[in-house]
Design a protein that fits this description.
By secondary structure, the protein is mainly α. The chain is about 75% helix and about 5% strand.
């Protein structure tokens, strides 16, 4: 049990440390093409004929994302205006999601379909789980585990979506000459560090789900 709690605390902390330290390092290294993150995003989008997808600045740090509803790539201010390797990598990654959307990438469509049930699972699972444990009602606990499993499934499906977007990003920045030579290795480090946060989140979610299944098994055995 002690090892379990160490894992669910340390793994996310390490992932956050890794992404922040890597981003900080390469946000201070200029890319050789002299393009801002906004220019990188626009160039890749246009190369795929995605003229209808906008590129906007958004507040916050590492708040970059692609909004499929408004067809907009939103980049944090430092990445939008900056000329760094980190900014170029993150901009390309978010455009990778726009390309997935254009090509109706299966895992992205599946993740979008899971959003409503995943939100329900996240909001209600712990209420049912706590009530089931406190009242010693295995059926209620199992229902909570079922809801939680939907949220965990969303986390797992997110992994191929994010890794695929990163692979697309690398292909685009290399083929368009946005990065050159040793910048490929540095760009990959930024993308890998960002992906680590999703891996950590999925791993912790799976561990927690497994722990609850063991609790349910023990409860039904006692009954």
């Amino acid at each position: 049990m002690l090892i379990y709690f160490i894992l669910i605390i340390l793994v996310p902390l390490y992932a956050q440390f890794k992404v922040k330290s890597t981003y900080k390092k390469y946000s201070q290294v200029a890319n050789s093409s002299g393009r801002t993150g906004a220019q990188v995003a626009r160039e890749i989008l246009d190369s795929h004929g995605l003229y209808n997808v906008g590129v906007e600045e958004t507040r916050g740090v590492l708040s970059d994302h692609y909004d499929p509803r408004s067809k907009t790539v939103r980049l944090s201010s430092s990445n939008y205006h900056g000329y760094s390797i980190a900014g170029a990598a993150i901009a390309a990654h978010e455009v990778g999601h726009a390309i997935q959307d254009q090509q109706r990438y299966a895992f992205l469509r599946f993740r979008h379909a899971l959003v409503p049930v995943a939100n329900i699972g996240s909001n209600f699972s712990w209420i049912l789980i706590l009530a089931g444990v406190l009242a010693n009602l295995s059926g209620l606990l199992l229902l909570g585990i079922g809801f939680m499993a939907l949220a965990v499934l969303f986390q797992i499906v997110t992994l191929p979506v994010e890794f695929n977007a990163s692979n697309r990003a690398m292909d685009e920045v290399v083929s368009l000459g946005i990065i050159r030579n040793n910048e490929e290795r540095e760009t990959r480090k930024v993308l890998n560090a960002a992906a680590l946060t999703y891996v950590a989140a999925a791993a912790v979610a799976v561990l927690e789900l497994v722990r609850l299944v063991f609790i349910y098994t023990g409860m039904t055995r006692d009954e």
